[in-house]
Amino acid sequence: MGDFLGTINRVPGVKARFLTRVAGVEVDTDRFATVERLEPFHRQAVEEMGFGWDGCWRAEQVHGAEIKRVDKGDEAFIVDGVDGLITNDLGVMLGIYVADCGAVYIADKETGAIGLLHSGKKGTELGILGKALKMMGTEFGTKPEDVSVVLAPCIRPPAYEVDFASEIRSQAREAGVKDEHFNDCGICTSEDTEIYYSYRMEKGATGRMLALLGKYE
């Protein structure tokens, strides 16, 4: 899964994947227990991409708009209180879990900087994409016109009353991302629960998909 990530994967030095439902893995309303059961499959995918699980940083995801810069050196962990991660270090993998919310991939073809965001209803309302682009500008010299942005599968109307996917596109444009550099995959997670986890359709008893974005050495 991940043909929609072509624009990201064409950025030199960048690798991206989107991991969907894993058949046969038990899911329930305990997010942490379910993610733990999924971890061996997620770990394998990270290793197949040429990275180590100890280099895969993940955000806690509290439905906010806080973003953390992560750097190579310390062993990766789940970063408390944030919904976005950015880096410009080789060998670093970023990860975001989703089950209806949008995973937003950012790759700067000029500086090589990358970012990965959890942008659902709340994060979109708080403008996490615009905030991430500003932070990448401050930290790495990123210019919005140089980035490729991709929105992964997420829930959409009529399955969900808020069209945050459309708002993410609008915010990208307002921030200076070129229309031709923004790719919304257009997939609604509610449409096929054999492929996607959907918190709303499965009434909370669901797993988590994993968006991955890394800079390889």
Description:
This protein is an alpha/beta fold and 217 residues long. It has one domain (3-215): 4-Layer Sandwich (CNF1/YfiH-like putative cysteine hydrolases), CATH 3.60.140. It has helices at 6-9, 31-48, 121-125, 128-140, 164-175; strands spanning 14-19, 56-59, 67-69, 78-79, 84-87, 93-98, 102-108, 114-119, 147-151, 182-184, 209-215. A 6-stranded mixed β-sheet has the order 3-5-8-7-9-10. Strands 1-11-6-2-4 form a 5-stranded mixed β-sheet, with helices on one face. β7 and β8 (114-119) form a beta hairpin.
Provide key terms for this protein:
24% helix; 217 residues; six-stranded mixed sheet; single chain; five-stranded mixed sheet
Give the termini separation: 24 Å
Q: What is the domain tally?
A: 1
Which of globular, elongated, flat, extended, rod-shaped describes the shape? globular
Q: What letter string, H or E per element, gives the SSE order? A: HEHEEEEEEEHHEHEE
Estimate percent helicity: 10-25%
Radius of gyration: 16 Å
Question: According to CATH, what is the topology?
Answer: CNF1/YfiH-like putative cysteine hydrolases
